[in-house]
Design goal:
The complex is a heterotrimer of chains A (229), B (1008) and C (104). By secondary structure, chain A is α+β, with helices and mostly antiparallel strands. In chain A, a hairpin with a 2-residue loop joins strand 9 and strand 10. Chain A is globular and about 50 Å long. Chain B is of the alpha+beta class. Chain B contains 23 helices and 53 strands. Chain B is elongated, with a radius of gyration of 38 Å. Helix content of chain C is 9%, strand content 31%. Chain C has 104 residues and is mostly beta strands. Classes of the chains: A alpha+beta (229), B alpha+beta (1008), C mainly beta (104). Chains in contact: A-B, A-C, B-C. At the A-B interface, strand 6 and helix 7 of A face strand 9, strand 42, strand 44 and helix 20 of B.
């Protein structure tokens, strides 16, 4: 019986545009709420459908191999994020029509865990399956894991001069630029909800909660924003 | 309460920190009065000649404003509004237009109307937190900020300045006191990294310099909302400077609670800060020099002052006594106020001489007056220091407990450290500010000479403090001419007197902690700020005469001067001193905090995270009622028009057993596992074997704790030789991942296994029922769904008709033919809708958790956490088949312990009420049928009735046409066929014990 | 608020961590070789000193890694943290007292 068993391998081609059209992001239905809560001083929106891949690796050569596959040097300490270009032509390629490539950020999550974040495959033409395939090949038989977690979290972007004040109402970490400079990302919690918190610019913060918490996190942030609306 | 008013001094024509162009109208007990911007409610009352406040809590004695700060034990009001707020001290309540208050008699009532005000929290990190903005705090903040450190300055008052607000005429750093405050404030506010928080009281101090403070923001809170009325600050500070001042002590004498008896420092504050004169004819009763400042400012304000000084004549020409005499005051030394004339208000003070032992040394003389200002000495405010287990020592010269050993990364400065001279406060504060900044890595840039050269040692500094403090003669209780102690109030809020303390020692109490609890002293709203040290002093007096045994200590205290002396037998005997008695324990909060402030924004919908699945909007649109499962909102049942829960569940059950139904199973925990040793790892974690699970198949497994108790269960799929996909219970997702990680990391790091949570990556739809195959065939046209082509506990990767890639499993939690469709979560809504559409022709029915429970209970599938409670083994659940007898796994060793094999364990059975319509409450106890004797259910039985088990799940079964229940019953399997009694809510019902599985025992329905 | 320095993520509030009880209590090599009493010792008995105590923590809201910490149970001061693959600092009790010898 076992030999009858075939488990269909993951497709690596580009996902059909119609299929991509069926996606609903976790905060899709909260867009109006977020727009209403946003104002001059602080704004909230969802950045949907980012490709997110969990990478686990322990051996240095395995870490290097997955880094090479992504076109980055894998970050090695808490808070670090590596930036690179994934896809055709590696770091030199730009997104000209027809080619597929995406900028990639790799967030350090633990000594043997990273999160690779790429653009929405509908925009980049880089399919999730292709990234998973490329990284799985790079990891090979070595200890570790490559797992598609694109649907697992969503990304919320809080920006504006009062963005940090809104976060300070709820995040226990020190968000002062001395301690949390631009480009830093860490896992922490927000009112007991696990989030990755990522400062992408002076006044721009990304929060990545797991999908089922999107409604709560948006509600909580929007409530904290009312003071500045 | 009486409407009697005392007409005391009133508002002075000049002076005070008031905006006299901004009168403020307010109402107290229905009477309209006026104050000014800058007033507190208490200062406005004093300015209106009203010292009388509510009555005392138990004895209903008239009371008056005693203090000018947070220690106030008498002047409490309710602020009336949409939501009344009670027990606010008038002494800290900022006057605002339209304020409507009611005086309280020492107790308030919570308003049961909702509080619609907003509250929130803020987290702040500081290099240096400075608490208190008197001279020491300001000096510390100024220095600490000068090197660029992040400094937060906390001041509970609405103005910076602390004691300087009451000393506006003195010179500080070559400026007027208030100019100094303004200049430091300007400097701090100009520094980009400094935050100045007024109206903010630090009420708790915890490990690692974690401080909690409450900011009152009525001045900024807006009616439109969004801006909180109170804000809780969570502060993480590298260094803390405590500059929290000291409290003046009242003196314990007869009738010392009559309105018009007021702390001397409070009198000065009302006069100097608020230009409010509490009395015109004043008797000032003091044990120390500090009150002479009050005498001076009263005289300047036009009042007459007679000083009653407990101390003997101090001969030096420079003494405060001599100074007062030169200024024309009458000063009586070695004297005390021994009683008060008047009850609604002071009309006179009885004064008598006292001898060296504090006993009366002559007849009392009545001095007419309308105010008695008292100063029993000073108590450094050590609450925040002591909350961190900072040590205290009794200092006899200062007559107070002072911090003796510092808390790591903290500095105590100013009056809170026993430093009472303003210039010394500046020196000590600046030094701490520089020390804190340097320790935090931002050395002060200031080159100001803060007197670092002075006081190289603690001893030298202490001597300097002693010189500044002068002589203090504490009077712990002044004898009354009639010998009574019944109106010598020690703790006015609790209405406790010296007589109560005497009763406590008479009953054998020695420890201050015992006395506190015996009398209730220090348990009131001021938490001992007024009466704590006086109680301790009184204890020394009461215990010293007849008891040379060791005195049990409270909070470890120690004596600065050793009090050991020798008894006649040569043994050292300790005479009680305040130091040996020690203090009671200081705990947060330093001042009262409303629960709403602690709750912050976490109320209503934001109380807890509500997790939702991608199809949540569909469930809402289709009328689902929801059940909380952990943090998840899961559809409970989907009532149609006119249906109650029972009818809806019956219909949903019928659909699943007879046609087709579908359920949102997204909430199940999911873990992806990879590694060459993954099979071995699972084999150790699950009680049943996993080494040989073929790729493409799944297996149900049970996990136990090391002690052999069921921990979680679920189905695990083998995706590849080295890859598995584990599902856990909804509630167990996080704990199972943690459990696996713990074993992987801590016990078996050598195993090549890696774990990742993918709970939220996948959305799962369960399609259940005899016609589910037809629905799946439509949804997944590429799939061979035949019984032969897609066996039970197998799974397939396929592309659905929509083009979405899916993993379809044949798993059942109902006993029916069933499938689970897993897709990446963002396709979850689409696939759910597609299932609904594909099933429409089969009348597919959505069902919720209640129907799921009924269906699984009919099959006796246990639910971890419902049939189990941490004391239940797989064997107890009748699942011996899931426990391997050969391999090693977590929990195995425990199964061979005697307790696991002895009779008497509770085991899973079903129980059928003889009344088919009776649904037993879950938790109902089961007893032997003859266990009741003559007990009828009324009251308690004469002897305990032994329980043999209890109901874990109970439902109405559509399939069986009757009610049924699962239960854990002692030796359950041996009782099958027996009748037991179920006991619930004083009622009893006969039930028959059956084998667990009640429906489709053969499992014939699984394959459709 | 205890601030615990995760060896991988640095200092974080205690609310980000899960407590794991006494450290260096290894799972027995061969549980079947133990008497019931010895097995109960392993399961249920732990030291409870006043002072230094080696214990396990997991940074559950961060890197999810387990590590060991030496905490003073009186002052709550954490004097050492070390990874699972690092040796226990000198000067601490060499073996958990409770699990040393059964019946000794």
């Amino acid at each position: 019986m076992a030999e009858q068993m075939t488990v269909k391998p993951a497709a690596t081609g580009t996902t059909d545009a119609a299929v991509l059209g069926y996606r609903r992001s976790p905060a899709h239905h909260l867009a109006e709420l977020m727009a209403a809560a946003s104002g001059e001083q602080v704004r909230l929106r969802e950045v949907p459908f980012l490709t997110q891949i969990t990478i686990r690796a322990t051996a240095p050569e395995a870490v290097e191999a997955v880094g090479n596959a992504l076109g980055v040097t894998m970050p090695s300490a808490v808070g670090e994020v590596a930036q690179g270009e994934f896809g055709e032509g590696g770091s030199g390629s730009s997104g000209s029509s027809g080619s597929s490539g995406s900028s990639v950020s790799v967030v350090w999550l633990s000594p043997d865990e990273w999160l690779a974040v790429l653009g929405d495959e509908a925009d980049t033409g880089v399919s999730i399956a292709a990234v998973v395939e490329s990284l799985s090949v790079a990891l090979g038989e070595r200890r570790g894991q490559v797992v598609d977690v694109s649907s697992n979290r969503t990304t919320l972007e809080l920006s504006g001069s009062k963005a940090r004040a809104v976060l300070d109402k709820t995040i226990e970490l020190d968000l002062h630029p001395r301690e949390f400079p631009v480009g830093r990302a860490v896992s922490t919690q927000m009112e007991s909800v696990a989030v990755i918190l990522w400062r992408s610019a002076d006044d721009t913060w990304l929060l990545m909660p797991r999908a089922s918490f999107a409604e709560h996190v948006v509600g909580w942030l929007a409530d904290g924003m009312r003071e500045f609306s | 309460m009486t409407q009697h008013q005392n007409h005391h001094g009133g508002r002075l024509e000049r002076g005070g920190r008031l905006d006299r162009d901004q009168p403020i109208g307010f109402t107290i007990d229905g009477t309209a009065l006026t104050g000014y911007a800058g007033d507190t409610l208490a200062s406005a009352l004093v300015a209106n000649g009203r010292l009388r406040v509510g009555d005392s809590i138990y004895l209903r004695r008239p009371r008056g404003v005693l203090s000018a700060g947070v220690e106030e034990p008498n002047a409490f009001v309710r602020v009336n509004g949409e939501h009344n707020e009670s027990m606010l001290p008038a002494t800290t309540l900022e006057l605002r237009d339209g304020l409507d208050v009611t005086l309280l008699d020492g107790i308030g009532v919570l308003d049961d109307r909702p509080d619609r005000n907003e509250y929130d929290k803020m987290h702040v990190h500081a290099d240096v937190a400075v608490i208190g903005s008197g001279p020491a705090g300001l000096a510390a903040a100024k220095e600490a900020a000068s090197g660029g450190a992040r400094v937060v300055l906390f001041e509970q008052d609405f103005e910076l300045g602390g004691s300087l607000l009451s000393d506006p005429t003195i010179t500080v750093a070559d400026q007027g006191a208030l100019d100094y405050v303004a200049s430091v404030r300007a400097e701090l506010e100009a520094a980009p990294e400094v935050t100045v928080l007024t109206r903010t009281c630090v009420f708790g101090s915890y490990d690692n310099n974690f401080l909690v403070a409450l900011e009152k923001r009525d001045d900024v809170a807006s009616a439109e909302g969004g801006v909180s009325r109170q804000r809780l600050w969570h502060v993480t500070a590298g260094q803390v400077v405590l500059a929290v001042g000291a409290f003046e002590r009242p003196i314990v004498f007869s009738d010392n609670d009559v309105p018009g008896v007021m702390l001397a420092s409070a009198v000065k504050t009302y006069v100097e800060r608020w230009a409010a004169l509490p009395g015109r004819d004043v008797v000032l009763f003091t044990t120390n020099d500090s009150a002479y400042e009050t005498a001076r400012c009263l005289t300047k304000a036009g009042a007459t002052v007679t000083v009653i000084d407990a101390r003997p004549e101090v001969k030096a020409a420079t003494s405060a006594q001599e100074g007062a005499r030169r200024a024309g005051l009458t000063v009586r030394t070695a004297s005390a106020v021994v009683g008060i004339e008047g009850s609604e208000g002071v009309t006179g003070a009885f004064v008598a001489s006292i001898d060296d032992a504090g006993q009366l040394a002559g007849d009392a003389e009545l001095i007419a007056c309308d105010l008695v200002a008292v100063s029993g000495g000073w108590t450094p405010n050590v609450s925040l220091h002591s909350q961190r287990q900072g040590q205290l020592a009794w200092d006899d010269v200062l007559s107070g407990f002072v911090p003796s050993a510092g808390v790591k990364n903290q500095f105590v400065v100013g009056a809170g450290n026993g430093t009472y001279d303003t210039d010394d406060c500046l020196i000590e504060g600046a030094r701490a500010g520089r020390g804190a900044a340097a320790a935090a890595g931002f050395p002060a840039s200031s080159s100001a000479d803060g007197g670092d050269a002075v006081a190289e040692s603690a001893e030298v500094w202490r001597a300097r403090q002693h010189r500044a403090a002068g002589t203090v003669r504490p009077l712990w209780a002044v004898p009354a001419p009639d010998g009574s102690l019944d109106t010598h109030f020690v703790d006015p809020h609790r209405d406790n007197t010296a007589a109560d303390v005497l009763r406590a020692t008479g009953a054998g109490m020695r420890s201050v902690e015992h006395v506190k609890r015996y009398t209730s002293i220090s348990t009131g709203i001021d938490q001992g700020k007024i009466g704590g040290v006086n109680t301790i002093g009184l204890l020394t007096q009461l215990l010293s005469g007849n008891d040379t045994k060791a005195i049990p200590s409270g909070q470890p205290g120690q004596d600065a001067a050793d009090a050991v002396e020798l008894t006649a037998s040569g043994q050292p005997a300790r005479r009680p001193t305040p130091g040996t008695i020690g203090t009671t324990t200081f705990r947060a909060p330093f001042t009262p905090v409303a629960f709403t402030a602690l709750a912050g924004r976490g109320r209503g919908a934001l109380f807890d995270a509500a997790r939702t699945s991608p199809a949540h909007s569909w469930h809402v649109e289709h009328g689902a009622r929801f059940e909380d499962v952990g943090q998840w909102k899961r559809p409970w049942f989907y009532p149609q028009e006119g249906e109650d829960m029972d009818a809806a569940v019956a219909r949903e059950c019928r659909a699943a057993r007879e046609g087709v139904a579908f359920m949102d199973a997204t909430t199940l925990g999911k873990i992806e596992i990879r590694g060459a040793d993954a099979p071995e790892f699972l084999n150790r974690m699950y009680t049943n074997p996993f080494l040989k699970l073929p790729v493409g198949k799944g297996r149900y497994g049970v996990m136990c704790t090391v002690s052999g108790m069921v921990f979680d269960d679920g189905v695990t799929l083998r995706l590849a030789d080295d890859r598995f996909f584990m599902t856990t219970t909804t509630g167990g997702a996080a704990k199972v991942l943690d459990w696996l990680e713990e074993w992987s990391q801590t016990e078996w790091p050598e195993l090549d296994v890696t774990l990742s949570s993918v709970t939220e990556q996948w959305s799962t739809v369960a399609v259940v029922g005899p016609r589910s195959r037809e629905v799946i065939a439509k949804l997944a046209p590429d799939l061979d769904v035949s019984k032969e082509g897609f066996g039970f506990m197998e799974f397939r990767e396929t592309t659905l008709a929509s083009g979405i890639d899916a993993r379809v499993c044949r798993i059942t939690f109902s006993g029916e033919l069933a499938y689970e469709i897993n897709v990446p979560r963002w396709y979850g809504l689409k696939v759910w809708e597609d299932v609904a559409a594909a099933g429409e022709e089969f009348d597919i029915t959505p069902y919720g958790t209640e129907t799921m429970h009924v269906l699984r209970a009919e099959k006796a599938f246990p639910i971890v956490g419902q049939e189990t409670d941490g004391t239940v083994t797989p064997h107890d659940l009748g699942m011996d088949w899931v426990v391997s007898k050969t391999k090693e796994f977590i929990g195995k060793r425990s199964f061979s312990r005697a307790a696991f094999t002895e009779p008497g364990r509770k085991q899973l059975v079903s129980v059928l009420p003889l009344d088919h319509t009776l649904r037993l409450p879950e938790g109902a106890q089961l007893v032997e049928p003859d266990a009741l004797g003559d007990y009828t259910g009324e009251g308690l039985p004469t002897a305990p009735i032994a329980m043999v088990g209890f109901v874990t799940s109970s439902y109405h079964s559509q399939a069986l046409g009757r009610s049924f229940a699962l239960a854990l019953v002692k030796d359950g399997p041996t009782r099958v066929g027996q009748t037991l009694l179920a006991s619930f809510g004083g009622k009893f019902a006969e039930v028959e014990v059956r084998e667990p599985v009640l429906y489709d025992k053969e499992g014939a329905r699984r394959d459709g | 608020m205890m601030v615990i320095p995760c060896p991988f993520c640095g200092p974080r509030n205690e609310t980000e961590y899960t407590y794991g009880g006494q450290a260096h209590v290894a799972y027995p090599e061969n549980p079947d070789a133990l008497t019931d009493e010895q097995w109960a010792q392993f399961l249920f008995y732990r030291d409870n000193p006043r002072g230094s105590y080696a214990e396990r923590w997991q940074h559950s809201a961060g890197c999810r890694k387990w590590f060991n910490a030496v905490r003073n149970t009186h002052t709550y001061e954490i004097t050492h943290v070390y990874r699972l693959d690092q040796a226990r600092p000198d000067g601490l009790p060499k073996a958990p007292l409770a699990t040393k010898e059964v019946g000794a």
